[in-house]
Specification:
Length: about 220
């Protein structure tokens, strides 16, 4: 498919069928079928052909790793280690609290001042940032995470949605779980019960800067 400029409906349907089969083993494969499903719909309405766009090319190219991949996923050790995480984001800052053996650890940072993404995207990014902050300690383990944004929780649970920007973030999240062999369980927590909410909105003394205006007469 990658060698042509246009793809016919029959070829797209066969490829989509293989992707569906892959879902039985890797449910998160749905994150890499959005453009294929979209192209199949368009081809059905346009004489059975669709142009191979850059987004569609990238999605199909991702699956080429199966041709040469000989790796395997490591077995998760049966260690008694419970890791829980709560994350939150405001428009200007994100925060994460990680609980492992009752010892909470805080992580937080500010968003770039030019970052104008919607709050559900920042909430998802906060989750990714929090996980990456403790990537080594949670490797090969199950992690229970709590987020106070339903869009993020449902996107991970259903793995089907229309928001392309959210889809890209979900790919990043999935790739992280694969790289560190993490069994990620994502649940919703109301904002008023989220201990990370304050962390994402509080300014420390180091964060603040005082400006003194002096008038000369």
């Amino acid at each position: 498919m990658l060698a042509v400029q246009k793809v016919d409906l029959n070829t797209l349907q066969k490829f989509a069928g293989k992707c569906i089969s892959l879902l039985f083993a890797v449910p998160s494969a749905k994150f890499y079928t959005k453009e294929v499903n979209k192209a199949t719909s368009i081809a059905g309405k346009n004489s059975g052909y669709v142009k191979l766009s850059q987004d569609l090319t990238n999605e199909i190219s991702h699956c080429t790793f199966l041709q040469s991949w000989k790796g395997c996923f490591p077995w998760r050790g049966e260690k008694h280690l419970q890791v829980s995480m709560v994350t939150d984001s405001s428009l200007y800052k994100w925060g994460a609290l990680v609980y492992s053996q009752d010892n909470p650890t805080e992580f937080s940072d500010f968003w770039d001042e030019k970052d104008e993404r919607a709050i559900h995207l920042k909430e998802t990014q906060a989750l990714i940032n929090g996980l990456k902050s403790v990537s080594v300690s949670i490797q090969d383990h199950r992690v229970d995470t709590f987020v106070d944004n339903m869009a993020c929780v449902q996107a991970w649970g259903k793995q089907t949605f229309k928001d392309l920007a959210l889809n890209e973030l979900m790919k990043d999240l999935f790739n992280f779980t694969v790289e560190f062999n993490v069994d990620l369980r994502l649940s919703y927590i109301p904002s008023k019960e989220n201990p990370a909410d304050l962390l994402s909105r509080t300014l420390s003394a180091q964060d603040c800067m005082c400006y003194i205006e002096i008038s000369f007469f």
